[in-house]
Specification:
The structure is a homodimer. Chain A has 10 helices and 5 strands, in the order βαααααβααααβββα. By secondary structure, chain A is mostly helical.
């Protein structure tokens, strides 16, 4: 296994990362383990990632619970999913330059694994696990609240995070219109790689929208998305 | 909304439940809210359930992390899923007689909602959320560790929690045999309610196993389960 920046180890040592996190580790080996991708060998960050993921989910849940005291559970849940998904975690990992502290196997190193969203997100979660084990809940929580503060104060519109069928249904309900129906209008291809084509119908309009996908469910979502766009931005379509 | 046992409120008051949990609430209204199913009205336990679920997942994650210091992440993850699933939570809820403390709408009350796994599991999670908000992390953690101790010390065999395809694949790999293949051997029914039939083949044997399901994936899992049974318990089949 190779450490990145191994020609100049002073640039990106785990101690430097600990400093950026504002944490003084009693057991620095925990942070070192959090930075070891599974390609680096048997001792790696996968178990810490499992632990850190659960801490992250909990701290974000509580933060959202308090910040949005009247938001229903569904909104809290969708907001959290958007905050803890891989892309969001990778943004924070990049702000910490986490990639430069990673220990990767030679294959991952050559293919630029230290830039990959999934590897960065996993290492961030593992780092959270390491901070928790070393420093306890309160320190991990404070660190996470600080790291996620910008995202927590700029949450996306809760409705935009809904799946297209739900969004379309709620849009129609709020306009006192009847619910849409979905009909499989075509299936193509062999059984093991079928393409479904679904048509979305409105009860009170001749307007229809088509969606395709590798399953009936995906095709319905695509049709709902198209119908929602037709109803809300008719000019652009 | 109706309280259960409303003719004899002394039997099942939230205070009694708090006693059973070993928690003295500073804000008893939190526990009261945790016991209000959404059928009871606008003020209900759904937000607390969201929070409690995340605390439960975290505490169980940490417990498993420490109890099984060499178990890979995949095993920890499957064990946790088995501990926090609805059926397991309902077992613990019943030990606490949680059903008798619930506040349900009249419809749910008549249909026996206080006995339903999903309602019991949700109320238990909400109760965890209430304990955490009122008493903090350490108290919630200690309570959860106590409630889950019997299940944590009698974990199911990790392999038995794997999905059938994975289990079959690992069984064959450990016997240095080639991987199975899956073939859609039949599809029946209309596009929107197809039944898939999949045959599982082994490279080094004429033995085959059939599985059916509402999707290709489900039919493959069923075929793998059948094949695994054929290989491991040939007599019983």
């Amino acid at each position: 296994m190779l450490a990145l920046n191994s020609t100049n180890p002073q640039i990106a040592t785990p101690e430097k990362l600990a400093q950026r996190l504002g944490v003084q580790f009693a057991q620095p080996q925990l942070l070192e383990m959090a930075l070891r991708h599974r390609s680096a060998g048997h001792v790696n960050n996968e178990r810490l990632e499992f632990l850190g993921d659960s801490i992250l989910n909990m701290v974000i849940a509580e933060r959202l619970y308090h910040l949005h005291a009247s938001a229903p559970e569904g909104e809290l849940s969708r907001w959290r999913a958007s905050l803890v998904r891989e892309e969001s975690l990778a943004v924070i990992a990049r702000e910490l330059s986490l990639g430069s502290y990673l220990v990767l196997g030679s294959g991952e190193l050559k293919s630029g694994g230290f830039r990959r969203d999934s590897i960065l997100a996993d290492a961030l979660e593992a780092t959270i696990g390491a901070v928790y084990l070393d420093q306890g809940f309160a320190v991990a929580k404070t660190m996470l609240e600080r790291l996620f503060e910008p995202m927590l104060t700029h949450l996306p519109d809760a409705a935009s995070l809904k799946d297209p069928k739900t969004r379309l249904q709620e849009f129609l309900q709020s306009a006192k219109r009847e619910l849409p129906t979905y009909e499989v209008s075509d299936t193509r291809g062999q059984a093991h790689k079928q393409v479904f084509e679904v048509t979305c119908h409105l009860a009170d309009s001749a307007q229809t929208a088509l969606g395709r996908g590798s399953s009936r469910r995906k095709a319905e979502q695509a049709a709902a998305e198209r119908m929602y766009a037709l109803l809300t931005h008719p000019k652009n379509e």
